[in-house]
Amino acid sequence: MQNSGSGTRIPSQNIETLDPTRFQDRPPRRDAGANGDPGADEHGSAGTDGNGELTSITLAVDGMSCASCAASVETTLKATTGVESASVNFAAEKVSIRFNPAQIRLSQLKDAVKSVGYELRDSDASADEDADLARVAAARRRLIVAAALASSVMALMMIHMFVVSIPGYLAWVAMLGA
Questions:
Q1: Which of 15, 18, 51, 70 is buried most, with the most CB atoms less than 10 Å from its CB?
Q2: What's the Rg (C-alpha) of the chain?
Q3: For the whole model, what pTM was predicted?
């Protein structure tokens, strides 16, 4: 090994002494498809992998608020036995999972994701619209309550500053702000 100026070690190897057969094309593995994925047929789609068929499913994910949340869900699913691949789309709040149902059930996948604080649910267009409407209604209620409290504090502030001194003004503002 050689030592570079930055303190990292670089492996040194003499190209002339390498085995030339090492770089020859090898036949693809029997269980690999055209894209090299085990369990994929020559077109790259899921087929059998010896233990059963692979299934692909897309589910909605609840509870994600950032890209780190999406990475946590994806890492958890990929580490689960029987899951070949998992891909989380944070913007769409969806996850695509390719798994072997002979090794793991969908309920076990949902439990694994629930253990890290998120929830998988079936992706249904009407359910998605209902969930969006519920979120909008909750946000509207929070806005109305916040506007009412802020207006009260502003009104008390204006009265206290320009009209008459209000006894216990700071206590009223502290109660409204808490």
A1: 70
A2: 29
A3: 0.48
